Amino acid sequence: PVTQAAKTQAPSKTLPDAQTVTSVTHWTDRLFSFRVTRPASLRFRSGEFVMIGLMGDPDPATGRQKPLLRAYSIASPAWDDELEFYSIKVQDGPLTSKLQHIQQGDQIILRPKPVGTLVHDALLPGNRLWLFSTGTGIAPFASLIREPQTYEDYDQIILTHTCRDVKELDYGRELVEKVRGDDLLRELMGDALDKLVYYPTTTREPSAKMGRITDLLRSGEIFADLDAPPLDPKLDRAMVCGSIGLNTDIKEILEAAGLREGANSAPAEYVVEKAFVG
Ligand code: A2P
Question: What is the dihedral of CA 118, 120, 126, 128, to 10 degrees?
């Protein structure tokens, strides 16, 4: 990937809720990630999302500009002093067609009101945590696998990531390598970091493991691969983040196994959120 070197710069507040881009990495022609300064007042729980964006084009009649905002999962953990985001590039997407061109030193708008269901508080205590993602749906889990509480609360954390092509797995694969090699996390978590299991699959390009995660669950192939028991509502907890189709299909599998959907107000065995698209 192509990454611009980061330089620390103080944000100049020319936009409302402006934050400054500190680095941008282009992973493929469809995917990029970027980091921005974090507002000193922003508190969030790993797994939550915020609204971010840019000023839109001037209204031809009035010349006035309105902010163009979309929901983005925060991909960095709650303890990080910067914020990271992982995005698709949609060539005719109102926001991402512009956002894909941001560079280090540019400003984006960030509304500091984090929300979301992919948080530890929305799950009852359990032993094994499944993080099911496709495409940019890995973003909230990029936050959660860097969050010490994840390792304190569970005996095993299984991150699955399914993409069409091998290159689209790069962000997640590098992230997992970074987590495993991170001195600070290692010092804090010790061997607990080894609880993280990474299960990447592709659907359209040959790779070591191919197939939709839904098919691998239904056939039991993933349990055989991981030498792990089948889903058990007493022990298993799950978070799901992907396309609407993926979310619907995984929900069906989890419900069939006896897991119930939770929320911040009523924790249960699994939670779901739609990945940012378009
Ligand atoms: P597939 O290639 O079979 O459609 P996308 O890039 O379209 O967001 O898809 C990301 C990944 O999610 C692809 O590997 C895609 O597989 C997979 N996927 C899409 N819909 C579903 C679904 N309903 N169940 C499982 N996997 C899905």
Answer: 60
